[in-house]
Design a protein that fits this description.
Number of domains: 2
Structural class: alpha+beta
Largest sheet: 7 strands, antiparallel
CATH class of the largest domain: Alpha Beta
Number of strands: 17
Bound molecules: FE2/S2 (inorganic) cluster, fe (ii) ion
CATH architecture of the largest domain: Alpha-Beta Complex
CATH topology of the largest domain: Naphthalene 1,2-dioxygenase Alpha Subunit, Chain A, domain 1
Strand content: 25-35%
Order of helices and strands: EEEEEEEEEEEHHHEEHEEEEHH
Distance between the termini: 20 Å
Radius of gyration: 22 Å
Shape: globular
Oligomer: single chain
CATH superfamily of the largest domain: Naphthalene 1,2-dioxygenase Alpha Subunit, Chain A, domain 1
Strand order of the largest sheet: 11-17-16-15-14-13-12
C-alpha cells in the first residue's frame, strides 16, 4: 500500500541544474524530472504519448523537453507544443504532469490528486538554508519497504546493537533512558535526554570532547520525512534548558519516498552548526557508515519479510514511537480510502 496525497521528497535541488533531467520512479510510476533553461521545474510521466519512448532519454531545450525518437516536444505542464512535420496537434497529445516545487534545497513531488497539492503542507528543513550551518547529503536506493525505514528511524534502542562501532555508546544507557513520545495531528516526536554520557566517536572527532557530555536526541516524524536533532555539550552547561549555541549539534533530514512496494528512495542530509569547520569529511564518512549499518539491516529484514508474507511480528516496549507513527500512517491510508470512495 502506498500513500499518494502528500508531498514526497523527489531529490535535491542540486540534482537538477538548468537544462538537465533525471529519470526516477515514484510509487511505481516512471517520472522524468527536468529544469528548463530559465530554471523552472517540470515533472512528467516518463513515457512519450507517441510511441512510449522514455522522455528522460530526450533533451531539455529552452522551456521544453524533446523526445529523442521523433522529436515531439512537451512543456512543463505536459502539453505537446510541437510535432515535427505537422501543424495540427491532436487533442490526446499530452503527458501527465505532476506538481513539483523546491524549498530548502529539496525537491518535492505530489503523486496524488493534483487538486489537493498545497505547497504550504510540505515539510520544511530550515537548516539547509541557514548560513550558520553546513550540510551534505546522499541518495541511497534502498531495497526495502519505506515503512521499515520509518520504524528504524523512530526506534532509538537499536543504536547500541546496530551502531556499536559508530554512534552506539552504552547498551544499558539506551534501554534505560526514558523516551517521551508526543503526537500532534500527523506529527510524532520522540525525545530522549542522556546526561553524563560517554561521547560517541563521531562527536569526539567533530567537537574534540575530552570528558562526559550531556547528550540529546529529538526525533520528529512529519509525513514523509523524519528530522533527527542530536548533539552534546559539556555536562551541566544548559543543553536541557535550551542553551545549545555552544554545543555540537547535528540535524538530519531523512526522507523516504517509495519507489515501489519494496524499494525506496532514501535521501538523507546531515547538517552541523560548526560552519567554520563545515562537516569534516571524516564525520560525514562516519555518518554514512552508520547509515550503511541501518540499510543493511533493512534490506535483510525485507528479504525475510518477502519470504514470509503475513508472518508474526511481536512488539516490545521500545516500539512505542514507531507504533505511534504506524497509527498516523494507518489514519492517512484510511483518509485516502475515504476520499477515493466519496469520489466514486
Ligand atoms: S516516441 Fe516520442 S516522438 Fe515518437
Ligand atoms: Fe540506525
Amino acid at each position: 500500500m502506498l500513500l499518494r496525497n502528500l508531498w514526497y521528497v523527489a531529490g535535491f535541488s542540486r540534482d537538477l541544474p538548468a537544462g538537465q533531467k533525471v529519470a526516477r520512479k515514484f510509487l511505481g510510476e516512471s517520472v522524468v524530472l527536468f529544469r528548463t533553461d530559465a530554471g523552472e521545474l517540470g515533472a512528467l510521466e516518463d513515457r512519450c504519448c507517441h510511441r512510449a519512448m522514455p522522455l528522460s532519454d530526450g533533451f531539455v531545450d529552452g522551456s521544453i523537453i524533446r523526445c529523442c525518437y521523433h522529436g515531439i516536444e512537451f512543456d512543463k505542464t505536459g502539453a505537446c507544443t510541437r510535432i515535427p512535420g505537422q501543424d495540427r496537434i491532436p487533442a490526446a497529445a499530452f503527458v501527465r504532469s505532476y506538481p513539483i516545487f523546491e524549498k530548502n534545497a529539496v525537491l518535492f513531488i505530489w503523486m496524488g490528486d493534483p487538486a489537493q497539492a498545497d505547497p504550504a503542507t510540505a515539510p520544511s528543513h530550515r537548516w539547509h538554508s541557514d548560513e550558520n550551518w553546513a550540510w551534505s547529503g546522499k541518495h541511497y536506493a534502498l531495497k526495502a519497504n519505506w515503512q521499515l525505514l520509518v520504524d528504524n528511524l523512530m526506534d532509538l534502542t537499536h543504536l547500541a546493537y546496530v551502531h556499536a562501532r559508530t554512534i552506539g555508546g552504552n547498551p544499558e544507557m539506551h534501554f534505560r533512558t526514558h523516551t517521551q513520545v508526543k503526537r500532534e495531528g500527523n506529527t510524532v516526536t520522540a525525545y530522549r535526554h542522556m546526561p553524563n554520557s560517554i561521547p560517541p566517536r563521531t562527536y569526539v572527532d567533530a567537537a574534540g570532547f575530552k570528558g562526559d557530555i550531556d547528550r540529546w536526541q529529538e526525533i520528529e516524524f512529519e509525513p514523509m520525512v523524519i528530522r533527527v536533532l542530536t548533539g552534546g555539550c559539556e555536562v551541566g552547561t544548559g543543553a536541557y534548558e535550551g542553551k545549545r549555541d555552544h554545543a555540537f549539534q547535528m540535524v538530519f533530514m531523512h526522507a523516504m519516498t517509495p519507489e515501489s512496494e519494496d524499494t525506496t528512495h532514501y535521501m538523507w542530509t546531515a547538517a552541523t552548526n560548526r560552519i567554520d569547520r563545515g562537516i569534516p569529511e571524516i564525520v560525514f564518512k562516519q555518518i554514512d557508515a552508520t547509515i550503511d549499518e541501518d540499510t543493511a539491516v533493512l534490506e535483510s529484514q525485507q528479504r525475510r519479510m518477502s519470504e514470509t508474507p503475513g508472518g508474526k511480528l511481536v512488539d516490545i516496549a521500545g516500539d512505542n514511537a514507531s507504533n505511534q507513527v504506524r497509527h498516523v500512517i494507518a489514519g492517512m491510508f484510511e483518509a485516502e480510502r475515504n476520499t477515493a470512495a466519496a469520489a466514486e
